[in-house]
Amino acid sequence: MNKRILAAVVIVIIVAAAFVAMWQLNVFAPAPSAEARNLKIGIVAGMQTVEGQDIERAAQLAIDEINAEGGIWVEEWHTKVKIDLVLVDTVNDAAGSTAGPVTRAITDQGVDMLIGGATTGGTLNGQIPAITNRVPFIITGASLNLVTRRGSLPEGNALRIDDAEGMSYMFHYCTTISDYSTTVAHFLADSVKPTLDSTYSFDSTRKLRLAILYRDDGYGRGVRDVTSSIITSDSLPIEVVANVSYATTATTYQSQLISVKESKPDAVYIAGFTADTAEVIKEGINDVGLKSLYIAVEICEDPQFYALLGETGSNQILESKIATQWQGDSWYLPKVGTYVENYGQKFDGKIPGMLGADTYDAVYIAKNAIERAGTLNKTNVKDALETTDMPQSLLIMENEKITFSAGTNYHEILPKTFIEQLIWNSDSDELKPFVVYPDTMPGISSFKQRDFVLPENYEPGSP
Amino acid sequence: MITPGLVEALIWGVANGCVYILLATGLNLIFGVMKLVNFAHGQLLMVGAFVAYEVTTIAGLNPYASILVSMGSVALIGIVLEKFAFRKVRGTEKLNEIFISLGLIYVFQNVATLLWVEYYNIRIPSPLSGLGLSLGGVLLGYDLILAMVSVVVILVGLVLLTKKTKIGLAMRATSQKSDSAMLMGINVNRVYVFTFAVGAALAGAAGAIYGILYPFNPAIGALPTIKAFAIIILGGLGSIPGAVAGGLLYGIAEKTAGYLSNGTWEDAVAFALLIAVLVIRPTGLFGEKGE
Hints:
The complex is a heterodimer of chains A (about 475) and B (about 290).
Chain A: H1 2-24, E1 39-45, H2 50-68, E2 72-74, E3 79-81, E4 83-89, H3 99-107, E5 113-116, H4 120-133, E6 137-139, H5 164-167, E7 170-172, H6 177-200, E8 208-215, H7 218-233, E9 238-246, H8 254-262, E10 267-271, H9 274-287, E11 293-296, H10 303-309, E12 317-320, H11 334-346, H12 355-373, H13 378-386, E13 390-391, E14 401-402, E15 418-425, E16 430-437
Helix pairs in contact in A: 2-12, 3-4, 6-7, 9-10, 12-13
Chain B: H1 4-34, H2 41-57, H3 66-89, H4 94-115, E1 132-135, E2 138-141, H5 142-164, H6 166-176, H7 178-183, H8 188-213, H9 222-235, H10 240-260, H11 266-280
Antiparallel strand pairs in B: 1-2
Helix pairs in contact in B: 1-5, 1-8, 1-9, 1-10, 2-3, 2-4, 2-8, 3-8, 5-6, 5-8, 6-8, 9-10, 9-11, 10-11
């Protein structure tokens, strides 16, 4: 009798073990659907621009990582699907050159979603086919939040879009001019002004004299207006002493810098792109003798900017959102370190830029949304994107999480930006960045690397 | 009111004008003697800038000595262009010359992009960069002074060449009437190739000086060519003094407009000046009727 019980127990155990093994091996899982196909992500990037190349490389890196893990799980097909990168080449991101490639990607190549877009002008044009065709678009470049707020523009404004449902397919995973102008204005008030006051014995009531030199386009004018507005609304001790523009086609800036010099500024805030900003700083210091403090914005967080600026950039300022050239024993966010290392290994030692980081994160945001949606259906994916709730990745977020603001027109994030001071390393003949502001960041207790110092030969504005 | 800033803008305008003078003079010389309109002249400026950059950075040559190397190299390119491209279509439809020069724009630009793709907005390194005289709040950079002196020396050399040498005499004779010059025993082919080489050398010099004062890349040739054409029309077709006056006027108008209007009106003001001069004096400042 005991032997029979024992035999029965053994059989039950064997059957149970076999069942568990079969369960583990997905023997009972439904077979993958015959409809399963690869996911097509259109990467919108101007391949004639440095930023566009960075966007494409970062997207390729993220997609290769995901595909190496088998792809994205799509519940309705009971299988993982690989991602195909569809390059939507907008050439130079000019306003008139983006809608065509985006339209072709949607209608001819059948992309499931779009990621990218480097400039506001180009994206405002390129997003229209995505809005019309209801294709989810995670915009990772345009720094004017116009790209998500076109429905709120006044009646009659040429950029206004009344199609609220179409606009609800737009998501903005990028810092805006308001984000970084806030950081710059507060850095000037909190760090630069006290340093000037103590170094030159200025009266504490003296306001910091700021000149704004900007590209004469929507982006540059936006920086000019937003900065003045922040100074006023936050009651910062800053006086804007000059607003000087330059044509987007300009290659030299001496005339404008002479004008800026006459306003006797303590600091010059440059709203430009990589090449023009580097040239402005070099011409300002070397040609015009304006030995001031120059502040570049985050689009210049690119190896080309460092190379163009060279030693002339020592002790000048760069506002940034990702320190891809972080100097320190351990990275401020381990994920940033891994990204920089993998990017370098995959692309011949290249250092990533700033816009690629947004794009890299956006590919993972898309993966997360599709896996939660369980389908590639564009409306379901859009709905899933709206409820994104992921830990912060390469960009630092106010609440350490990636979430999009609610509302059909405002799918925006809450990023944090910071200030780096560029220091010339004469041993390696390279310019290197060090964080000087702020002291801490969400989830990073010790962020600041050194105190801000005035550049050598710095000359303040009028007393 | 004259402010230090305005004076500084005027000085930069003169320096700017100096580059235009060299470019426009070369263009004018070629047009005056050969009746050839070379739209790729600005690309010779671009090549000149890169040649000067390479000999300065690789061979360690002084940037002002590199002007001579640049002139020689671009003159050689000019000889090749004249012999193997423009000479082949001389005497045929004018459109043939125009299309050859338009095609050369893309050939030069694409080859330069292939060769110097990593060199975006570079400058020829000068040991005098950032140094200069400070006079009453006005910074007069040593590079600016030397660039202007270099242009004056080159122009004096050009005047001596055209006025005091046999080949210069032949050039002037050919420019007036090529058939008669040929009957007088002048080898017109030789004059043409020499003229094209001199014009190209001037563009090479303009390129080297441009590269010392301004950032450059493979695409910089187009705008200076348009400006050089505007300047020779402003000064008078075929007139070298006209190119000098037009270049200075244009350079000063451009920079002072940039200074006074916050920058975005530079080109508009300079071209408005061109239109105004042509309305008042259709032959340009130094041009003669019938040219």
